[in-house]
Amino acid sequence: MLGTSFARPLIAKRAVEIAHKEGATAIAHGATGKGNDQVRFELTIMALDPSLKIISPWKDPKWTMKSREDCLDYATTRNIPVSQSKKRIYSEDRNIWHISHEGGVLEDVSKEPPDDVYTLSKTMQTLPTNPNTWRLNFCRGFPLR
Questions:
Q1: 3-class DSSP string for the chain
Q2: What is the reported pTM?
Q3: Quick check: 1 pLDDT over 70?
C-alpha cells in the first residue's frame, strides 16, 4: 500500500540525474498542491541538488486549471486521450509495485468504491471460478511477461 510513497522519491532521484545529464537548471512536476506527492518530489530534489529550481504548476498563481474537471476540459478541447472522465474522475498512480486511486467518490469513506475503479483487479463477485496462474519474471528490475 506504500507504492506511491516510495515511488515518488525514486522518480525525483531519476529526474535529478537526468537534469544533471542534460544540463538543466530546473525540474517540473505535476503534483497537486494538496497532497503528499509535492513534498516527496520537492524534498528529494532539494536534498539531492538544492541548486535546481523546482517548477510546480499547481502552486503557481498563473496556472488557470484549478480542478480535475478543468484538466479534463483542457484535454477534451485538444483531443488529448485520458482514461478519466467526469464520471470516472479518479487519479491513478500505477508503477511496478502497485496501483492506487484517489479522487471523486473515493474520497467519501462512507461509500464503497464503484466497480469501475478496479483496473488491475476485480471484485469478488466478478472473479472467475477457475483462476489462472501467472509466472512473472524480472530482468534488471523490470517485469517480463
A1: CCHHHHHHHHHHHHHHHHHHHHCCCEEECCCCCCCCHHHHHHHHHHHHCCCCEEECHHHCCCCCCCCHHHHHHHHHHCCCCCCCCCCCCCEEEECCCCEEEECHHHHCCCCCCCHHHCCCCCCHHHCCCCCCCCCCEEECCEEEC
A2: 0.72
A3: no
